[in-house]
Design a protein that fits this description.
Number of strands: 0
CATH topology of one domain: Four Helix Bundle (Hemerythrin (Met), subunit A)
CATH class of one domain: Mainly Alpha
Helix content: 55-70%
Structural class: mainly alpha
Oligomer: single chain
Bound molecules: heme C
């Protein structure tokens, strides 16, 4: 499979080129202006190489369970808090992946629905709360963020998730989900 780069819209590219040319004549003025003109889609990016179903199982579900477990753990060592932070960071990054869609047959239709983006934004907000709780080593706050997160997972699943996952990839039992990174 070849990796394709998404081309920015021509008009946006032109504006960006003009802005960059202007900046080139003012070496100290990088920045604010260019940053407000260019949105994150005004540049090339690499399309997702896997399906949302696989991302749910291999990244979202995995990372979220670690965050929930940290909330309910009897004791948390410094190392445990670092591990929790690592998984919460993984979940935070996964939020953007979920908003982009993937190779699954229903993925692009799902991500074009505004409700999908709202649920994803909610998942990101819950994860940010979890990260703040982890940074403060506050388990009670982590449990609260975790509980809000479950409501979000379930809300989006109720709205979008088919009874049988489109790629047949489920989280339990693990030996049945085959290769979670299968792409075709
Ligand atoms: C924006 C919507 C959305 C959010 C938010 C979301 N999911 Fe999903 N999830 C889906 C959809 C849709 C599927 C089914 C994908 C398919 O069939 O291709 C799915 C599938 C799954 C699956 C695989 C199917 C299964 O039943 O085993 C797991 C596991 C999963 N999600 C866990 C989670 C967890 C945990 C969270 C929250 C931390 C979460 N999801 C948040 C939409 C979402």
């Amino acid at each position: 499979m070849s990796i394709s780069l998404q081309k920015p819209h021509r008009k946006a590219a032109l504006i960006l080129t003009l802005a960059l040319a202007a900046l080139a004549t003012m070496p100290n003025a990088i920045s604010a202006d260019a940053a407000t003109k260019a949105t994150s889609t005004d540049r090339e990016f690499i399309e997702m190489q896997t399906s949302l179903n696989a991302i749910m199982v291999a990244v979202v579900d995995w990372a979220a369970h670690e965050v929930w477990e940290a909330g309910y753990a009897e004791t948390m060592t410094g190392r445990n808090w670092l591990t929790a932070k690592q998984y919460a960071t993984e979940l935070l990054a996964a939020g953007t992946l979920v908003s982009l869609g993937g190779t699954g047959r229903a993925d692009m239709e799902w991500v074009s629905d505004p409700a999908w983006q709202e649920w994803t934004a909610e998942m990101i907000a819950n994860t940010e709360d979890a990260l703040r709780a982890i940074e403060a080593k506050d388990q009670a706050a982590l449990v609260m963020a975790g509980e809000a997160l479950v409501v979000t997972c379930e809300g989006c699943h109720q709205a979008f998730k088919p009874g049988i996952p489109t790629e047949g990839i489920i989280h339990v039992p693990h030996h049945e989900y085959g290769d979670p990174l299968a792409r075709d």
